[in-house]
Amino acid sequence: MTVGVLVEIANKNVDKLFDYKVPRTLEKEIQVGVRVQVPFAYRTLEGFVLEIKEDDLESSLKEVIQVIDQDIVLNQELLELGKIMAKETLSPLISCYQVMLPKALKAKEGTSVTKKYETVYVLHREHITSLTKKQEEIIALFGEKESLSRKELKEISLARLNVLVEKGILEEKKQEVYRLQYSSSSLVVPTLTKDQEMVVQHFLKSDESTFLLYGVTGSGKTEVYMELIAKTLEQGKKSIVLVPEISLTPQMVKRFQVRFGNRIAAFHSSLSEGEKYDEWRRIARGEVDIVIGARSAVFAPLSNLGLIVVDEEHSDSYKQENVPRYDARRIALLRAKHYGGKVLFGSATPTLESYARARKGRYQLLELPHRVNGQALPKVELIDMNQEIKYAKGHFSKPLLQEIETCLKNKEQMILLLNRRGYSSVVSCRNCGHVEKCPHCDITLTYHKSNQMLRCHYCGYATSVPSICPECHQESLKDLGCGTEKIEEELKGFFPESRILRMDVDTMSRKGAHERMIESFQKGEADILLGTQMVAKGLDFSNVTLVGVINADTSLMIPDFRSSEVTFDLLSQVAGRAGRSEKQGRVYFQTYNKDHYAILCSKENNYLKFYQEEMKIRKMMKYPPYYYLVSCNLACKDQQKALLEAKKCEKVFQKYLTNTILLGPAPASIFKKQNIYRYQLILKYQYQDNLYEVLGKLVDYYATNHAVTLEIDFNPLHL
Ligand code: ADP
Ligand code: ZN
Predict the structure, then answer these.
(1) 194-368 CATH choice from 3.40.50.300, 3.30.750.24, 3.40.920.10, 3.40.50.2300
(2) Cα→Cα distances 469→225, 294, 416, Å
């Protein structure tokens, strides 16, 4: 027997199968989709068996050393899916398989996650003869059961048990156990509202396969997901629920657990590798009907998938930013198609791409326009910092300070958002908030400290930093930004009695810190939750009546064509944190751009209007969803060489991609990182039939080059 093995080297250059001979003794264990250990260029590597050829090829082939798995780790569906992924993202096939699996199964040497075992005692009633009184008591513990674990027999001494083992009455065995145990509990499933019921009925009756649920914050989307999952279960089919990592809190998982009990498996970052491995095996063995998790849970080895839910479908976290640069939303569509299942995307602020597809009828649009509790969405007030800055104390305007005071007095809670997205690389006017943009690309220019220049990192346009603001003619251009710590300090100064929880990357670095903080705030142990964008999403606190945004504008300045969308999403989401229970919520945005459509539309909570305004710009500037984008980065330690190679690629593109608009080469948004320089080329196209062929050839070309790396990103999140 000969097998074709894909080895664990992630390089396009070895992205093919190598043949190995299978020793007679191992033939029985070989299956397509198991891992094997093989000799490879003086080393021992792991790899996946992808092909079995019955006849022996040349006898000079090297032999498989060992078969690692008893059960297959990649089934036919996932093997095929990997091939599509590799093709669509131009990534090494092995990287696509590895990303699907928990660490313990990745086919990487040196991973040492093992199964956990416990001791059980099996009762052989047929061997019972005469017993002492004490022994009879032990046997009685078994009741009707055939076996008990050591834990269940912990009252009994080992010596006593051993006597029974020697007599053959008990048999001692090692049994595999899972590290996590779920218990189901009874719960009252709420009666769906009319709106929810309509959405559910629509979904069930439709023959379409892809749906977009556009529902405002607090409209009961999660309840709809659970109902649809229950219906899917009734049809004997399985479901996956994807949520952004940040909203995968124990509270969220609990909601599903309470309803579906131990038929669910949850993947979150606080699981140990061993626990992940156990969860994965439960799924592979068909012991699970519902999987809930972040991005990579889309690969859960469920078969017979009836439904994949992608909650908060606009979230960045669904796109993986390193190789393989896959999009979990795309994978969801591919997997559902394979099983004839359905995909449901849900969001209060859908991506423009998804909403445009829904308007075109490619996705079926479902809507939940009202909140479950019948409350109006909270009223948003804009505070014009151009005016208020004169009376402000630190970063706080007078009206916001007043609201905070009232909120504290009423013993209610508040969330304060410090929007820090994109602030560090931008120069803006402290007086009027003006930022310089590229005349060709409509994105913010990036500040390069070393030579005091402003540069467009899409097209390379450059200009020096003006000494006075071109808008208000004041000498007040400055890089923006302050940290949450500074804001916390100011707050403590104004309200010494207030209890503040600060949530940012610094305070979040410890494992479980996020959950602990949420729990503490939920219990009312703090008055103010202050933080960066992580306080904006998914949180559901009934006592929060005030939301304040200290600087609504900073994210408008991210040097990226999605900056308005990011800002609109963030502000809409954070506003949605207020007034989720009986008490009406109030929301304040401090802004220098009160007339910007992203700010105005989020104030009015008008997604449709935002969509229309933004689509006009996307059309005019030839951005998605009107055009597809590909980002190609040339990375090298030697700056000159990186640029030179980028120019070579430019020539190739100019020659062969005749329907494509080419931008750059220009310094990438992160130009120098860990001493590697990056130049970026951006491709914009609507239709280019030889795109994959041309890019594929370049990828192969650079695969053999150790000095220069070509990084290709289709539909990049950030440019
Ligand atoms: P979303 O996911 O749209 O933000 P959720 O599903 O989290 O909304 O619902 C918001 C709140 O309303 C939750 O506390 C949820 O338990 C509650 N809820 C949802 N649907 C119903 C219903 N039909 N009856 C009663 N309460 C509901
Ligand atoms: Zn430009």
Answers:
(1) 3.40.50.300
(2) 50, 44, 30
